């Protein structure tokens, strides 16, 4: 029974997220399911099965949807009931790759988070780097310590 509740809750949450991101999944000819499937690189049938509450997406599909919908994979896994928050350390527990020792975001990590395709990331780093102040570091206020 828990699996059915997980599927219902996850599908409801992801439906709202899909709509927020501008995919028209309500009208039959809106094309939102196909657009989402194409953007994520998954089969349209996987999107349809999820939205009809027939099946939970597999891990790779979740990863791809998370990227397109701009949500952390961690959140997808927890909301889907695949793992618990206790089983997945929060993002603050470990320094993400691509962040400096002082917690500043690198251009490479920013490109990844923005979903820039791998083959275009070096160009992004070069172009964005031209806008950084001398020394190549963004001027980011220090994080407040609790």
From TrEMBL:
Q: Name one GO molecular function term.
A: DNA binding
Q: Which SUPFAM superfamilies match?
A: lambda repressor-like DNA-binding domains
Q: HTH cro/C1-type domain spans which residues?
A: 36-76
The protein's name is Helix-turn-helix domain-containing protein
Q: What is the lineage of its organism?
A: Bacteria, Bacillati, Actinomycetota, Actinomycetes, Kitasatosporales
